[in-house]
Every structure is written in C-alpha cells, then in structure tokens.
Amino acid sequence: MTTTPAARRPGLNARHRAAATAVLAAALLAVPANSARAAAGSAADTSDTSDTSDTPADQLLLTVSGAQNTWIRGVALTCPPAADTPHPHAAEACAELAATAGDLDTLPSDANPCPMIYNPVTATADGTFDGRPVAWQRTYPNSCFMDAATGPVFRF
pTM value? Predict the structure, then answer.
C-alpha cells in the first residue's frame, strides 16, 4: 500500500494526478522487472530455448484515490501471484479476475449494505490481463461501495 503525501495538496488537478499515477506506476512496475532481469543475468542459462518461463505474467497497476484526488495509493497485482507479491489478497483477486476473463465491470458484487455517506473514491486498473490491455477507471460514492463492487481486487 502506497500513499503519495504530495497528492494531499488542495487543488490537485487531473494533470497532477496523472503525473502522480505515472510515477507510482513506474516505481511499482520497475522493481519486479529489474529484479527478474538481474536474476536472469546472474544465472547461466543452459535450458532449452523453447522454455516459456520468460513469458510475462499478467500485471495490473491498481490505484485508489480519494475525493478531489487528495490522496492516492496503489499496488501491483501479478497473476498468477508470486510468493512475494505486494497485493495482500493476490490469490483471491487473480481468481476473481480469471472468473470474469479480466472484465472488472463484471466482478461479483457483495450485497452488504453501505452507508449513504458521499466521500467518493476512484479506482483504476492499468496493465494486462490474459494477454489483453486493461485501462479501467470507476468512481464510487465511498470505499464501501467500491469494496462491494470489486471485492479482493481493490482490497489493499
């Protein structure tokens, strides 16, 4: 879970939010890629060239931001999840995404009631799932509605 303190400034506009999201995305996505490259570069490769272990896993950068972009947090979700995944519910999130073929609009919803308090949150998902590009964004009246609609995918 990452919160960007710089995003707490009042008057943060869409351009600033996009820049903050881009920086967060680069930071979250660069670490696993660089670690994999370093590990691959340090080991002698004597395997068959038909090995598909280098096939990139599906990876989504998930973010949640508060009302008027006053805060933002994000996490990378890789499916299938690795043992050291930063997403706290990665296995469940990947299973739900697999069940909907990566369509975040058709995730099973929770019927629990939510308070009618308007404190909007925006959820975004960018990356790939099942080899297809994903660029998804939805704004919910509050975090309870978001959790009811997205379940473990945005539960971080």
Answer: 0.66
